[in-house]
Design goal:
mainly alpha, elongated, two-stranded antiparallel sheet, Hypothetical protein af1432, four-stranded mixed sheet, about 60% helix, 27 helices, single chain
């Protein structure tokens, strides 16, 4: 357990790496991807394609549909026979005859009539009588089930209602009966003895259709399928479609699937490992902060999963996915270099699952670079819209170039693809709500939030201006100086400005104990011991931290409150205490720290100290200001206040120059004119 505890940081990062790799490979489409993109009637843009393996050529859907319809139309129909109908009809005839008035008719004549009727009934029902005709040709084959045996016939041989008009009694000349009347009476008594057997017919049709071959011929391995520049149509189109479908439906053995999965895991794992190594080498603070590390991987996973889902649904919408939202978000929270590196890792992984990976890589790479090079101040609406417009323009231009290269012209231009680019750009506008959501979930700070916090009408800053107006004015001056310095040396100007506005909010607890708020001229420190006075002065940093947490200020802003005095000495009260007691402990007069640990916090310490000290200059001149600035900054360097901040001596000299000019403009120093 001790070993696990000692290595828990690296363990968490390994678990994150394994989880992201597994999830990424899991969302990859299950089918294989045909790496060529083609359209009917257009030239083949790639190198000559040879068959990678032998495969049968699938029939196109239309011809296969027609063939199935033809088989269905020609398939025999099946009928069932009700053998009891024949006897029933003859009995009904006899009953009908017995009801007639036959006193004047001889029995022999009646018997002859009944015999002829019986023959006619036998003639009809031995063949079969169908009352509801089907839409079939006379020669269409049919099968009639007699005593569990199928008797072959044709549809034209069956009796239908239209055929009964030809019935007649022709063996005898009846004197007492009209032959037509007898036929009419017989027709009324006839009932169909054939019933269409739809289930058996459908089963027969299904079997016949199932015998149809879905392929025609075979393409041998190594055979040329299509050469570069040939038009994709006809048989070549069908062969390409067959090969594409073969890739999609290809099944793998357990061994093949294991090897394929292993390959994906290795490649994706390598990509994520490169990102972690980049952070470990060049962004150590982010690497050490697991929350920030997880945030970066989370955004990459969202883009990959979203793209994989679109590929599974319909691959033609692949360019609707706003992939460039990834570098935009990471640039807003961290820096441009990290955003570009993460973007490259993401599109490398996505190239495994998208068609035309070379074209996709180029388009997304160019769009990502434009995103990084665009204005970093996305909290300004105009800048974000301008960035989106630039990305859409790059998509248009790149697609035009690829189309011109592949097609040798612009005929057949796909306007739908351009619509997808516009939708992608519009989707990138969701970066604003996403940044807000991510700030709340992951506790990060972006320039959008910094802009809101810099509003001097916010509740906390208005309270500061009411309770400690001198401190508020001091904070505004420090913010202006610090922002100018940050712009000069390339630091985050917005961050340092907001940090300067809030760095002294702890003075609201005891505002009159600080010189800038003593408007009445009464100094309460005159009634206190130097050590108590120092404690009140030092506590303003702790009070500020508590107040900042109470008002839910971000940790990055609280860092300025904690570090703006570092572990420096409250020199005035220490000197005063030393006059009374030479052995007084120096530790009681030092701020608790920590020291500044970034360029921004170091800038604030310098600007705060210099601005406060400049108030003590009587009759300020350029020489006095230059001397004061150099003395304060050199003193901070000598005391090691900037050892943890990534700031160079060259930048410190630049800061000195900028602050001297800034203070000179504040105090409106002019040259002395002769009297």
């Amino acid at each position: 357990m001790n070993s696990l505890y000692n290595y828990q940081n690296i363990t968490y990062r390994i678990i994150l790496l394994c989880f992201c790799t597994a999830l990424t490979v899991y969302v990859f489409p299950n089918n294989n991807r045909f790496k060529y993109d083609y359209n009917q009637g257009e030239p083949w843009d790639y190198e000559t394609l040879y068959a990678p393996f032998s495969f049968p050529i699938e029939k196109d859907k239309q011809s296969l549909k027609q063939e199935r319809q033809s088989v269905s139309d020609l398939a025999p129909r099946y009928f069932k026979v009700d053998e009891s109908i024949k006897d029933k009809v003859y009995r009904d005839w006899l009953i009908n005859m017995s009801s007639r008035n036959t006193d004047s008719i001889s029995n022999s004549e009646i018997q002859d009539i009944n015999l002829q009727v019986k023959d006619i009934i036998s003639q009809i029902y031995n063949v079969g009588y169908l009352e509801l005709p089907l839409e079939l040709e006379d020669g269409h084959p049919v099968f009639i089930e007699y005593n569990n045996e199928l008797i072959a016939s044709t549809y034209g041989n069956l009796y239908k209602p239209s055929d009964l008009g030809s019935l007649k009694f022709d063996k005898l000349n009846f004197e007492s009966f009209n032959s037509r009347e007898l036929v009419s009476e017989l027709i009324e008594l006839l009932s169909p003895n054939l019933t269409y057997d739809r289930d058996l017919t459908d089963l027969s049709i299904k079997e016949e259709v199932g015998k149809i071959l879905t392929t025609r011929g075979v393409v041998a391995e190594g055979a040329r399928i299509i050469a570069q520049g040939e038009i994709v149509e006809g048989g070549k189109l069908q062969i390409l479609n067959t090969l594409n479908n073969t890739y999609k439906s290809q099944t793998w053995t357990d061994s093949q699937y294991t090897w394929k999965l292993s390959g994906y895991i290795i490649l994706v794992g390598m990509a994520y490992t490169m990102l972690i190594l980049f952070l470990w080498r060049y962004r150590k603070t982010i690497f050490d902060n697991f929350r920030k590390l997880f945030f970066i991987f989370f955004n990459i996973l969202v883009v990959i999963i979203l793209t994989a889902v679109v590929v599974n649904i319909d691959i033609q919408y692949i360019f609707v996915v706003p992939v460039c939202i990834l570098p935009l978000i990471l640039k807003a929270f961290f820096d441009a270099r990290l955003g570009l590196f993460a973007h490259v890792i993401a599109i490398f992984i996505l190239s495994f699952i998208v068609p035309n990976s070379d074209e996709y890589l180029f388009l997304q790479m160019m769009a990502g670079i434009v995103t990084i090079l665009s204005n970093s101040e996305i909290y300004k609406r105009a800048n974000l819209f301008l960035t989106v417009a630039q990305i859409i323009g790059i998509y248009f231009l790149s697609y035009f170039a690829f189309y011109a290269i592949n097609q040798g012209g612009v005929t057949g231009w796909e306007w739908s693809r351009l619509g997808y680019f516009v939708l992608c750009g519009l989707a990138m506008l969701f970066v604003w709500p996403l940044i807000y959501i991510f700030e709340k979930i992951f506790g990060l700070v972006s320039d959008v939030s910094l802009l809101e916090l810099s509003d001097t009408n916010s509740k906390l800053l208005k309270e500061l201006s009411n309770k400690a107006p001198g401190t508020f004015h001091h904070s505004l001056n420090v913010a202006n100086i610090a922002e100018t310095v940050a712009n000069e040396i390339g630091a985050n100007a917005m961050l340092v400005r907001v940090g300067a506005l809030y760095h002294d909010i702890g003075k609201m607890s005891n505002p009159t104990y600080f010189t800038e708020n003593q408007g009445s001229g009464i100094n309460p420190h005159n009634d206190l011991d130097p050590e108590d006075s120092a404690r009140i002065i030092i506590d303003h940093t702790l009070n500020g931290i508590e107040l900042a947490r109470k008002h839910n200020l971000p940790d990055r802003i609280i860092d300025f409150i904690r570090t703006h005095h570092g572990d420096s000495l409250v020199y005035y009260f220490y000197s005063k205490a030393k006059e009374d007691n030479p052995d007084v402990s120096k530790a009681n007069f030092c701020y608790p720290g920590p020291k500044p640990f970034s360029q921004e916090t170091a800038i604030l310490m310098i600007a705060d100290s210099v601005e406060a000290a400049s108030k003590s200059i009587k009759n300020p001149t350029s020489i006095k200001i230059d001397t004061l600035v150099s003395k304060i900054i050199d003193g901070q360097v000598d005391s090691g206040q900037f050892l943890n901040a990534n700031i160079t001596f060259k930048q410190i000299e630049t800061i000195k120059t900028v602050i001297k000019k800034k203070l000179a403009s504040i105090y409106h120093l002019r040259i002395e004119y002769p009297e």
